[in-house]
TrEMBL record:
Compartment annotation: Cytoplasm; Mitochondrion
Name by which UniProt lists this protein: Small ribosomal subunit protein mS27
Family: Belongs to the mitochondrion-specific ribosomal protein mS27 family.
MF annotations from Gene Ontology: rRNA binding; tRNA binding
Region (Disordered): 292-324, 395-417
UniProt keyword Transmembrane present: no
GO cellular component, one term: mitochondrial small ribosomal subunit
Keywords of the record: Coiled coil, Cytoplasm, Mitochondrion, Repeat, Ribonucleoprotein, Ribosomal protein, RNA-binding, rRNA-binding, Transit peptide, Translation regulation, tRNA-binding
Organism classification: Eukaryota, Metazoa, Chordata, Craniata, Vertebrata
Biased composition (Basic and acidic residues): 395-406
Encoding gene per record: MRPS27
């Protein structure tokens, strides 16, 4: 029922999609060409390698139980030139992650890996290694997250984009305004497709909306917080608070529906022009109605089944049961707050998707500039570090060669003596 309610509340978005203005917004809701351009990255000094020889060298090194250097895996990724070589690089990234040198996977190697995946049509590989970050060591920086997220949005793969947003949320990387805007755009557009959501998807979307919403001021941030808390509250009511926060950067204290109502109360009491989108308020209303109906049905079944259900009741966590018992209070409090919001003009009739699209028009272009300046500095720092590693490697090889020759000379002198 709650999933149906979400569909009903977001249904109006379909009408908006038909207008020319929204199509214009959708096209602009992408990072600019200079932002995603590869010229700066490709301008780095080349370190050409034969991948077959490099792969053979790494294999022999691993077979002898010696560590492979971060420079070797970086060279392999940088020299990818086909889709097949992307698969080979994935294998060596996995091997490197499970080697003694696993902590030294360079940030520029992660960035290069994502760019190579996008260049050779292997975006699924980038997402796979990102979702399995512990196995591959994929912890991208904000800029790298952005170009991957943008790629999914350009293709209108909003489910894939939300998978990237989930990783941004888990890594708590909503630092850049561009990341916040792109994430909210992906989330709102995915919800507008009226997806059938599993509990784990509701949890991920709810956490992403809540945390990204906390980074935004005004109606968009407040509406995202409300919808995020509502989705998390649904999970909490169905499976308990432990199912909400486990493995998530979330509060472990119960009461996510109460937090959703607190957002409404804060907006109703605030003197400014902050509003809540109607679809977010309507979703919470429908959710409370569905949960109340389910609770009433469950109570009736308990009365009929008697002792067996009593045993099941004992298995419910005490805090979780206390939160479920607050449902009638939440429902009545919602009616009061909803009335206050309506009377004070604090409900925006525009769906969250449209509000975010408007934010894109107003803010995305100006937010790109600082990102690009920071990226340019970062590429310079990465390149300086890479060149330093190359010089150090050369010095170590020269020293090893000198030691080898000295050892051979000593052996020859010993034989002559």
């Amino acid at each position: 029922m709650a999933a149906y309610t979400l569909k009903r509340c977001l249904g109006a978005v379909k009408v908006i999609r038909k207008c020319g203005n929204h199509r214009f917004i959708a096209r602009r809701c992408l990072l600019s060409t200079p932002y995603t351009d590869t010229k700066l990255w490709d301008a780095r000094e080349k370190d050409h390698q034969n991948l077959a020889l490099l792969a053979s060298l790494m294999d022999r090194t691993y077979d002898r139980n010696f560590p492979v250097s971060s420079l070797s895996i970086s060279r392999f990724v940088d020299n990818i030139s086909s889709r097949e070589e992307v698969d080979q690089a994935e294998y060596y990234l996995y091997k490197f992650r499970h080697s003694p040198n696993c902590w030294y996977l360079r940030d520029w190697t992660v960035h290069s890996w994502v760019r190579q995946c996008l260049r050779y049509g292997a975006r699924d590989k980038a997402l796979h290694t990102l979702k399995n970050k512990v196995q591959y060591g994929m912890f991208p920086d904000d800029f790298t997250f952005n170009i991957l997220l943008d790629s999914f949005i350009k293709d209108e793969d909003f489910k894939g984009a939300c998978s990237v947003v989930e990783e941004v949320m888990l890594q708590e990387s909503f630092n850049l305004p561009t990341t916040q805007i792109l994430s909210l755009y992906a989330l709102s557009n995915y919800l507008a497709t009226k997806p059938e959501l599993s509990m784990s998807e509701e949890r991920a979307l709810g956490a992403s909306l809540l945390i990204s919403g906390l980074k935004q001021d005004g109606s968009i941030g407040l509406s995202a917080q409300l919808l995020g808390c509502a989705l998390l509250g649904k999970v909490e009511m169905g499976a308990g608070i432990h199912a909400v926060f486990r493995g998530m950067p979330l509060m472990w204290t119960p009461g996510y529906l109460g937090r959703a109502l607190a957002v409404m109360e804060r907006v109703a009491a605030a003197p400014g022009d902050g509003k809540l989108s109607k679809d977010a308020v309507d979703y919470l209303e429908g959710l409370l109605q569905d949960l109340s109906s389910a609770s009433d049905s469950s109570s009736g079944e308990d009365d009929e089944s008697g002792g067996e259900e009593g045993k099941k009741e004992e298995e419910v966590d005490e805090d979780d049961q206390a939160e479920r018992d607050k449902l009638p209070l939440y429902a009545s409090r919602f009616k009061v707050l909803s009335g206050q919001l309506q009377s004070r003009g604090k409900v925006d009739p525009s769906p969250l998707q449209v509000l975010v699209s408007s934010l894109v028009q107003q803010s995305l272009a100006s937010a790109e500039g600082p990102d690009m300046e920071q990226y340019q500095r970062k590429v310079g720092e990465w390149e300086a570090e890479r060149q330093q590693l190359i010089r150090r490697e050369k010095e170590m090889k020269e020293r090893a060669e000198e030691e080898r020759r000295a050892h051979q000379a000593a052996k020859a002198a010993a034989k002559q003596g």
